[in-house]
Specification:
By secondary structure, the protein is an alpha+beta fold. Among the domains are: about 35 residues, no CATH class; about 40 residues. About 55% of the residues lie in helices and about 15% in strands. Strands 1-2-3-4 form a 4-stranded antiparallel beta sheet, with no helix packed on it. α2 crosses α4 and α3 packs across α4. The relative contact order is 0.08.
C-alpha cells in the first residue's frame, strides 16, 4: 500500500513523497524537476557502515527535515538557531552542534537504539571524537593498548571486520552470562 504526500510551504512545493512499507522516497523536490527516487538515510543501515564521513550528518538532517515538510527557516526557528547556521550544518560546513543533538533526536523521533548511530554521525563532523567512548578509553589502559596494536599490525580490512565481529560476539556472550547470573541471584 502506498500513500502520497505533497509538502507545500508558502505555496511552493517542497517535495512530493511516496510512502510505502515504512520507507519514504522523494520523487520530486523543490525545483519541480522529476528526479530519480532516493531513500532517506537509514540509521540502522549506517550503524555498521564505512560510508560515514563529515557530510553524512548534514545530509541526514536535511533529508529528515525535508521529510517532515519543514523549510530551513521554519525548522531552524523550532530548534532555536538561525537558518544560515542550519543550512551550514546541512551542507557540512559546520560541526554538528552538541547543544542541539537532543532536540534534533526528539524532532526526528529517533528510537533509543539508533541514538548512538546518530551521535556517531555528529561525531564524524568533529573528526570522530566519540564522547560516549572516550571516557571508557581514558579509564581502560588495556583497551587503548589493544586499539594501538590493532592500528600497528596493518591487518587486511576484511580480516579486521572478522576480528571485530568475533570481539562483539564474545562481548555479547559475556553480557548475556552476566544477565543470567544476575537473574539467578534474585
Amino acid at each position: 500500500m502506498f500513500q502520497l504526500a505533497i509538502v507545500i510551504d508558502f505555496n511552493d512545493i517542497l517535495g512530493i513523497y511516496l510512502i510505502a512499507e515504512g520507507t519514504l522516497k522523494c520523487l520530486n523536490h523543490k525545483d519541480g524537476k522529476l528526479r530519480k527516487e532516493k531513500d532517506i538515510v537509514n540509521l540502522k543501515e549506517l550503524r555498521m557502515s564505512k560510508e560515514i564521513d563529515e557530510y553524512t550528518f548534514g545530509k541526514y538532517v536535511r533529508e529528515r527535515r525535508e521529510a517532515l515538510g519543514k523549510s530551513v527557516r521554519g525548522f531552524a526557528e523550532e530548534l532555536g538557531m538561525t537558518a544560515a547556521y542550519l543550512s551550514d550544518i546541512e551542507k557540512g560546513n559546520r560541526y554538528a552542534p552538541k547543544k542541539y543533538l537532543e532536540k534534533l533526536m526528539e524532532k526526528f523521533d529517533i528510537p533509543e537504539e539508533d541514538k548512538g548511530t546518530f551521535e556517531d554521525l555528529a561525531s564524524a563532523t568533529r573528526g570522530y571524537t566519540y564522547e560516549d567512548i572516550n571516557p571508557i578509553l581514558g579509564g581502560q589502559p588495556l583497551a587503548r593498548e589493544a586499539l594501538r596494536k590493532f592500528k600497528e599490525t596493518n591487518i587486511p580490512e576484511e580480516k579486521c571486520d572478522e576480528l571485530w565481529i568475533t570481539f562483539m560476539r564474545e562481548f555479547d556472550r559475556i553480557a548475556e552470562e552476566q544477565l543470567q547470573y544476575m537473574g539467578e541471584d534474585e
